[in-house]
Amino acid sequence: MSVFLRATVVDAPVAWSAGVAGEVSSGLATRTVWCRVPDDWLAGSRLTPRRRIQLLTAACPADDRVVMGWREEVLTARRAASRPWRRDAGACFVAVDDLLTAVTPADLEAELPTT
Predict the structure, then answer these.
(1) What is the C-alpha separation between 97 and 33, in angstroms, rounded?
(2) Which of 25, 26, 35, 72 shows the smallest number of beta carbons within 10 Å?
(3) pTM for this one?
């Protein structure tokens, strides 16, 4: 069984020197990520640490940014049925064969009943 998840990531540019993070710029960016993942990716109502890192890496692949904040929410069936990603410009991902794949909003909702 799959669950729908919304994650919000706040990150900022960072200067690296000899592999050590330097000064963090004030240019914060907030990204919204919508995904459909197997329910065994969760521990309670949160992603397991391994899966959280996997989602974060997929959503923010740039090495020149540092994560300043993270929030995730498992959508209720009612909220998922309202397809909130259609009103948002966030990225969409689906877990396929244990990997996260970027998809269109229509592909994200493939398992939802049609309305």
Answers:
(1) 19
(2) 26
(3) 0.83
d(CA 52, CA 95): 12
Name the phi and psi angles at 49, rounded to 5.
Answer: -55, -40
Query: Where residue 51 falls among pLDDT bands split at 50, 70, 90?
Result: very high
Using the Cα atoms of residue 89, residue 95, residue 96 and residue 101 in order, give the sign of their dihedral: positive
Side chain identity at residue 70, one-letter code: W
Residue 49, classed as helix, strand or coil, is helix
Helix (H, G, I), strand (E, B) or coil at 61: coil
Give CA–CA dist 47/43, Å, rounded.
6
